[in-house]
Design a protein that fits this description.
Chain lengths: 326, 711
């Protein structure tokens, strides 16, 4: 940078000397400084006359983005987001460190997340952003620029392969759980956090994209929706009663292994409260009936096959659909 | 990886322009290049996989060793406000996806996307059962006296599901601020997933029948799911409104799984086949939402949605049913949802938030008698059980700026759910929380929060508290603490600490979940070693523990008749409890940089997870043989479940060399070790001889060569 600035200054001096030997244009007032030219955005000369690609963020790269698509008349100028920033531009007190722009988005900014986000919500407050003001993010000092990089061509949080890394900045538990063997394919890049959550806020719980947990799950698992002839109450109530969608060690992202999970509701009678064991450590008398079948393979679901609900109209009662056998 | 930008400092160009007359033309070209999104890139990827291990292959679509050639494509073209994009990933693999879109920014857009998502089971199956993937599972012919586990006609089966998703979306601005949107998503899902059926319980002492209670019967999946959404939005600075329709239509191509027995009568799934498969169903929802800015500091939101779900798929046939049930369930569920909120900054330092969410789910499915039994002259009818419920969620929160960058946030969350179908008609929970945070400091920021929740409910239906309360309806106290500290130690070094803990206390229930607790601690650090070398590392430790109580039957005394088929229902009830513990450690480190012209990167993930299932002591005596003709001391190890352990060690390395301005070569190496020590399938043999294996140690290595070219 230092070298570049020195080179820049040298060239300017050289340019000035060279220019001095050239007769000024007839229509240019003597001594007048040529007006700086906009490079990307309307009115950006105010900024680009000093800032360029050697700064972070790379200033001109905004031209590669939708914000830099000036043919769309709605696109902003630099000052739309950063403010007029006259103190920064003119530095009237000749401070060594120039005053920051009126709206500064760096980590050392003195603005609150809410004040920073106001630059975005001026335009982005409809559609999927409508509930931003009530979202957990907005109310926990997470601003738009906490997650989004406005000046880059490829915003990491909008890339489904990279998005989770951004979310993990705060959501450590979810990072931990998604590394477990039973998980949604987020680490593999086939899903993203935003498939289920609207980080900009929603009318649903946990900022889910649909109005309920179940409605969100059914966007991919509609076969669990039913209604069935025989509904399983906790399934209808909330998928999250049994599943941890971020990942578990137990199969099927169950919160606990079977039968322990099932015994959180069914453990006060002879059969459902039976002792789980594995084939190797149960005496035959027990294992031949039910022991290993409790803990191994699919656990309780070895028999209770249709645990999400059965649509069988069979009249069998003791071993039938009433107990989700078939 | 795929970006191709060329650094040419514009200031230098401008300076040169000032010095030399030819410079302005240069500057314009360079500015155009720096501001143009236009890209045409392609990558030919040649990853060689030495072993397609079950845990590694789960979602990555590579199921065979060798080279799995695939192609990536990125094309972006912009002219004025018109954008044209084509992108594709993993073309040639089962995970392939592609998209094409055209958009006139601020006017209209249309896009078409295609995606394949496979899932391969993380275990291997060896079976003699035929018909896997179909609706007709045929059990092998094994003599009653034969040892099923020795059946010689086993073959390997990989259970998998594959989704193919195609999405068409379009939007159009009719007027400034007025936007129409439409999307339709078509998903086909086929394959089969692990499932089974209960056969008949064990008979005799022959080992062949020990597991005759369980037959391998994977569930076939062949379904189509269409989702469509149409929206209209109108946005002004003062208010925003939207209305829309969402429809979800599931069509399943089969409704029953038939298990055909072989010659072994002990394997006959008596009266347990056919098994009902998921029926067709649909939901259609209409919604309207809006927000209004009363001022720059006060905003209100409202959403109202109404939906109707239907399920009227034909009942499966071929089994005894009662008269009068009709040909389908004819189910209908109508749901109304309302969400409203108000946020306001009452003063420079005080902001408040209030919200309320309401759900009214009315299951209007007709109730019929599907089964009936008569015992001692008393007839019991078995009905279908539609479930309706209503729920309210309220939130009140205030945030106050204390100064010096500190904030204080306090609030209450309230929920109330009620249903006449539940054992407890009404359950409410109130959470009180307080948090202090510092978010505007130059170098140190953080948050510390506490929350206390109490969940209570109405009397239980019969007026007496049952011995076990379903976990989601039971009384519960929950305390939670969270903390996060972000330290920017220097321009180059940033360290973040996070901690969270909760304690649950379920009370008033003799059995079921009693207590639970969990903690997670995490530290993340990033360090800029130089302008080009960046290092980041993190460590997370997560622990959890729950205790639950149960009573169940075991064979403690008696004779053969007492300890055979129905022992588990009639044996002496014993009291026992389980203490379930979880402990996991994760460590990750990443390094990225450049040597000469070569970009280099390395990642390491080490993950160790351990689960303990500690069961209390069993009764002093129990049956020691199958017929229970003798009793004795509890068998060694009975009531003990082994710990389960999972380990993952993954190393990823890459290097990318620019052969020319437009061409790069990338080399990747992945070493992936997984260890699974889990009793779930250990020594498990289905009655039909099917075995399920989980490889205890799985090592996969991938060496990948990619050629990337910008056109």
């Amino acid at each position: 940078m230092k070298f570049l600035r020195q080179l820049f200054a040298s060239c300017l001096v050289l340019g000035a000397l060279a220019g001095a030997s050239v007769a000024p244009a007839a229509d240019a007032p003597a001594g007048a400084k040529p007006a700086a030219k906009d490079l990307v955005l309307k009115g950006d000369a105010k900024c680009t006359s000093c800032h360029d690609e050697s700064d972070e963020p790379k200033l001109l790269h905004i031209g590669k983005t939708k914000h830099g698509t000036v043919a769309d008349g709605r696109t902003p100028s630099c000052t739309s987001c950063h403010g007029e920033s006259d103190l920064h531009t003119n530095n009237p007190q000749k401070l060594k460190d120039r005053p920051a722009t009126d709206r500064n988005f760096s980590k050392s900014s003195k603005l609150t997340a809410e004040e920073k986000s106001a630059a975005c919500t001026t335009c982005h407050q409809g559609g999927k952003h409508m509930n931003w003001n009530t979202s957990a993010h907005a109310n926990r000092d997470v601003g738009c620029t906490s997650c989004h990089q406005v000046h880059v061509e490829k915003d990491k949080v909008r890339d489904k392969r990279a998005q989770a890394e951004v979310c993990y900045t705060c959501h450590k538990q979810q990072r931990s759980e998604l590394n477990r063997p039973s998980h949604h394919p987020i680490p593999e890049g086939k899903m993203s956090c935003s498939d289920c959550h609207n980080a900009h806020g929603s009318a649903g719980p946990k900022m889910l994209v649909k109005d309920t947990t179940n409605a969100t799950c059914y966007t991919c698992h509609a076969e669990k929706r039913g209604p069935f002839v025989h509904n399983h109450q906790p399934v209808v109530e909330d998928c999250g009663n049994c599943h941890n969608p971020h990942g578990t060690t137990a199969e099927a992202m169950l919160k606990a292994r079977q039968p322990f999970l099932c015994q959180q509701c069914h453990a006060d009678a002879a059969h459902p409260g039976n002792v789980p064991a594995i084939r190797a450590n149960m005496p035959n008398a027990v294992s031949s009936n039910i022991g290993p079948g409790y803990a191994q393979a699919r656990g309780c679901s070895n028999c209770h096959t249709n645990i999400h609900g059965s649509n069988s109209p069979s009249n069998a009662t003791s071993s039938g659909p009433f107990r989700f056998f078939r | 990886m795929k970006t191709h930008s060329i650094f040419r400092p514009t200031l230098l160009v401008i300076a040169l322009a000032a010095a030399f007359p030819m410079a302005p033309a240069w500057a314009e070209d360079d500015v155009a290049e720096l501001t143009s999104p236009n890209t045409t890139e392609a990558a030919l990827n040649l990853p060689y996989t030495d072993k397609a291990n079950p845990l590694y292959r789960q979602y990555n679509g590579v199921t065979k060793e060798g080279v799995s050639t695939n192609v990536d494509v990125d094309i972006v073209r912009r002219r004025d406000a018109d954008w044209f994009r084509v992108n594709a990933r993993n073309l040639g693999l089962r995970t392939q996806e592609a998209g094409i879109s055209y958009e006139r920014q601020g006017d209209w857009s249309i896009s078409l996307d295609y995606d394949q998502i496979p899932r391969f089971s993380p275990y291997e199956v060896s079976t003699a059962v035929s018909g896997v993937g179909s609706t007709r599972i045929v059990q092998p012919n094994i003599a009653n006296t034969a040892a099923a586990a020795n059946n010689p006609n086993l073959y390997d089966v990989t259970l998998k599901t594959e989704r193919e998703i195609t999405t068409l979306a379009a939007s159009k601005f009719l007027l400034p601020g007025l936007k129409l949107g439409f999307s339709v998503k078509n998903e086909d899902k086929v394959g089969s997933r692990m499932s089974g059926v209960r056969g008949v319980t064990g008979t005799g002492a022959n080992p062949a029948n020990i597991y005759s209670a369980f037959l391998f019967a994977p569930e076939p999946i062949n379904q189509n799911h269409k989702q469509m959404e149409a929206t209209v939005e109108y946005t002004t600075e003062k208010y925003q409104i939207a209305a829309g329709f969402y429809g979800s239509f599931l069509g399943t191509k089969q409704n029953a799984l038939n298990v055909i027995p072989g010659t072994n009568t002990a394997l006959v799934a008596a009266n347990l086949s056919p098994i009902a498969l998921a029926p067709d169903n649909s939901v259609q929802q209409f919604y309207a939402s809006g927000a209004y800015n009363f001022s720059k500091d006060t905003r209100a939101n409202l959403k109202v949605a109404w939906s109707e779900g239907r399920q009227d798929d034909n009942f499966l046939t071929g089994q005894p049913t009662l008269a009068g049930i009709g040909g389908s369930l004819n189910a209908k569920v109508q749901t109304t949802e309302v969400y409203s909120s108000l946020t306001s900054r009452l003063s420079k330092d005080l902001k408040v938030l209030a919200s309320w969410r309401y759900e009214d789910r009315q299951d209007k499915t007709p109730i019929r008698i599907f089964g009936t039994t008569t015992s001692a002259g008393v007839t019991t009818n078995y009905l279908n059980n539609p479930e309706s419920h209503t729920a309210n969620w309220g939130k009140l929160e205030a945030n106050y700026r204390l100064g010096a960058g500190f904030n204080l946030t306090g609030g209450f969350d309230y929920s109330n759910k009620s249903s006449k179908e539940w054992e407890r008609h009404d359950v409410s929970e109130l959470t009180s929380r307080l948090a202090v945070s510092r978010t505007m400091g130059d170098s140190v920021n953080g948050t510390l929060s506490f929350a206390h929740s109490e969940r209570k409910g109405s009397e239980w239906n019969n007026g007496t508290t049952p011995p076990i309360l379903p976990v989601y309806l039971a009384d519960r106290n929950r305390d939670r603490v969270r903390g996060m500290l972000d330290v920017a130690a220097s321009e180059a070094l940033n360290v973040q600490f996070a901690f969270e803990a909760f304690v649950d206390d379920y009370n008033k229930s003799t059995y079921g979940l009693d207590k639970g607790q969990g903690q997670i601690f995490s530290v993340d650090g990033s360090y800029a070693l130089s302008d080009v070398w960046k290092l980041n590392a993190w460590y997370t430790k997560q622990t959890g523990e729950t205790r639950q109580y149960a009573q169940g039957a075991v064979c403690t005394t008696g004779n053969g008749s007492n300890c055979t088929v129905n022992t588990f229902r009639t044996g002496t009830l014993v009291q026992w409890d389980a203490n379930l513990k979880q402990d996991s450690d994760q460590f990750g480190i990443g390094l990225n940089g450049r040597v000469a012209k070569v970009d280099l990167g390395a990642q390491l993930l080490i993950f160790q997870d351990k689960n303990k299932q500690e069961l209390s002591n069993m009764p002093a005596t129990t049956c020691t043989n199958a017929s229970c003709s003798t009793t004795g001391a509890v068998a060694a190890g009975m009531g003990v479940l082994p710990d389960t352990k999972y380990t993952q060690n993954t190393v990823k390395l890459f290097g990318m060399y620019p052969v020319s301005k437009a061409t790069r070569v990338r080399l990747d190496y992945i070493y992936d070790l997984r260890k699974m020590d889990d009793y779930t399938w250990s020594n498990w043999v289905y009655a039909d001889g099917t075995r399920v294996y989980v490889k205890p140690e799985q090592t996969t290595q991938v060496i990948g060569l990619s050629l990337l070219h910008s056109f």
